[in-house]
Amino acid sequence: MAAAIDPVIITIDGPSGAGKGTISRIVAKKLGFYYLDSGALYRLLGLSAVRHQISVDSEKGLMALAEHMDIRFETESNGQFKVYLEGEDVSLELRTEETGLLASKVAQFPGVRLALLKRQRMFARTPGLVADGRDMGTEVFPAAGLKIYLTASAEERANRRYKELLEKGEDVSLPALVEQVRSRDERDMSRDASPLRPADDAIELDTSTMSIQQVTDQVLNILSVKGIK
Ligand code: DC
């Protein structure tokens, strides 16, 4: 019997708004790989906790929920990425600032991170996986073939979010968004459990002045130089 081929793992970590989601999806599609949006798991947990009236301060309650949450990720024929919680499409609710804040809170607990670890590793399938998050390269897939750490200045990340929200017709203040981005960074980088930091063997890319196309080309170029794909 032929030996099973290990899936190729590419991790893309970094702070919120650095472009991880967009880049990861494009790269996964180009390579025909699976995609893991690990932030969505933390967001789903926050949302599920509120719906089941479990306090986001209760590590035990959150751990039980994290293990048993009924969730499903689907890519539709038009390429749209959908997320379901207990059979309900929560894709839009998942992306709100409020859900992001809940996610950042539940993500602080070591027990929660451990409960989600196994679920995240189950996404690794042949031919490969692009895993997007904060600790993909440091904790979840430490043996990944390629680790990228995407950054951009807080101002630029807030500006990108500002444009996104304006397009959706939401009334927002840019200085307030800069403040939100900074405080989320602070929380994600200073927590004890798997804080946001580049893996020692990660390649760092500052996307502040780069287009989506330029970042994608760089990642694909690194892959080919490394002989991965
Ligand atoms: O990437 P995102 O904005 O959807 O993530 C939401 C929150 O989840 C983020 O503030 C921190 C947390 N998170 C995490 O702790 N570890 C991950 N691998 C992904 C997200």
How would you characterize this protein structure?
This protein has 229 residues and is of the alpha/beta class. The protein has one domain (9-223): Rossmann fold (3-Layer(aba) Sandwich), CATH 3.40.50.300. It is 49% helix and 17% strand. It has helices at residues 20-31, 38-51, 59-68, 91-94, 97-106, 110-121, 136-140, 154-167, 174-190, 212-225, and strands at residues 8-13, 34-37, 71-75, 81-85, 88-89, 128-133, 146-151, 203-206. α3 runs parallel beside α6 and α8 crosses α9 (174-190). 39% of the residues are buried. The model has no long low-confidence stretch (mean pLDDT 93). The structure holds 2'-deoxycytidine-5'-monophosphate. 2'-deoxycytidine-5'-monophosphate (DC) binds at residues 16, 38-39, 42-43, 100, 103-104, 107, 133-135, 184, 188.
